[in-house]
Amino acid sequence: MPNSMKTRLAIFLIVVATGLQAPAHAQKLAVSTNALDYADFGTLNAEVSYSLSRHWGLTAGVRYNPFMYTSDGHELSARQRAFSAGTRYWPWHVFSGWWFSGKVQYQEYNRGGITSLQTREGDRYGVGAGAGYTYMLTPHLNIEFGLGGWLGLDVFTEYDCPVCGITQASGRRFFILPNDLLIALSYVF
Known about the structure:
Blueprint (H helix, E strand, L loop, with lengths): L2 H23 L3 E6 H5 L4 E8 L4 E10 L2 E4 L2 E16 L7 E16 L6 E18 L4 E19 L7 E22 L1
Antiparallel strand pairs: 1-2, 1-9, 2-3, 3-5, 4-5, 5-6, 6-7, 7-8, 8-9
């Protein structure tokens, strides 16, 4: 075999060997979904996390619920579109163990008919914080447990009922609300 062919073969084998070892040490991306959000009237959700270093990660999430339900002739709604972006700090190692998070979030919502006929819709802008624990089930599958809250500005309109359109109140106000109750499955690439 000529020298140039041996050199190319050696370079190819080094690249392949390096590529086979990289995924075991460089898990950079995770995609997760929160099972408890589905219990909130079927809210669809996903979050993407990207590892910046051993301790820090970036997150981006979305929640979407377009569904309306009818119960005893009354309309029930917990519709929303929410977008968030933030960071997570992992004291031990990214995608494993305890974590603390901070984020900014926007939510467009319409909620009503659940505990009373009153319906509220509006936009919320705010910041949030949370904490939790991630348990590694397999090298690529994790389960996450966590709690979080957020605060900010709520621009809202309240109606007497979900379908009548009679405005009861509108305005802006400061809010503090729970935001994340997590039991999430996460796949790490």
